[in-house]
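User: Okay, second chain of the day. Same drill as before: sequence in, structure tokens out.
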Amino acid sequence: MFSNFSFQQPWFFLLLLLLPLVVWLRNRRGQAQEASVKMPTLEAAAGMKSWKADLQKLLPLLRALAFIALVVAMARPQLTLKKEDIKAEGIDIFLAIDLSSSMLAQDFQPDRLEVCKRVAAEFVEKRQYDRIGLAVFSGEAFTQCPLTTDHRVLTDFIEGLRCGILEDGTAIGMGLATAVNRIKDSPSKSKVVILLTDGVNNAGYVKPLTAAEIAKEFGVKVYTIGVGQEGTAVSPISRRIDGSYVMGMARVEIDEELLKQISDMTGGKYFRATTARSLERIYDEIDRLEKTEIEVTSVKRYSEEFYRFVWVGICLILIELFLRYTILRSIP
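Assistant: Same drill. Structure tokens below.
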């Protein structure tokens, strides 16, 4: 609250320097006028103490507090009420994430899918003013979440992703076509698809380059990410009757040439992620490349608060006068 306070005429605080001067003059005058009374003994006055005498000492304090309150009022305290109107030409972004069984490969810890989910959710949280959607694919594809600014709902969808909910395979063309179909009619000036996969296109009835041509036609930029280390990795090699996967060593195969063609055709860029850290850096780079231009109009309103201190000062003066001329009135 105090951080929102400002003073229009702060030089009035210089008047507070008068307080120590008044205290010094008062003490000096009191010492000069002090009278001595000769008494044969002070034993009769020993132990005598009056509550009025104690209360009498508060009168100068009340007057000093009243003076301070009035000085603060003269400095014109103002409460700043700040309002920001944010006009953002947001970028529409669609995530297309591979859910084929190979995404359970353990060359990432605990596996590729869990790392991709975490990094994608962190990316979504950074894009405060953008509409973001989610498409998933394996042997087929569907829209998990349409374009939305409710990023909490979107991150819930991302966290709930798992392999095995679709027919197995890697339909890159289907995944890209689904994302493009959802974003192509957007009125946004900038439309982006981030396609993440760890395999080779081997399913679906839409060819990846055909989907890329459609993206290019509608002005959709595609960033492609190939996930997986070089060589071999512990990956699902078969599936049991109960649906669980049998793990074994399998070769990492990513059609990098295809992913580069898709990104080049649409004005995007291809990335290869071989570690969790490199995947984070890739999303950071995409975040920098696709920055949202935001126009912020800041409106400041001020509320005058001096009257509160005026009332405090007046009340303290009235209390001091009341005590001085009633309860604490001294008889000459």
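The first helix runs from residue 18 to 32.

User: Thanks, on to the next one.
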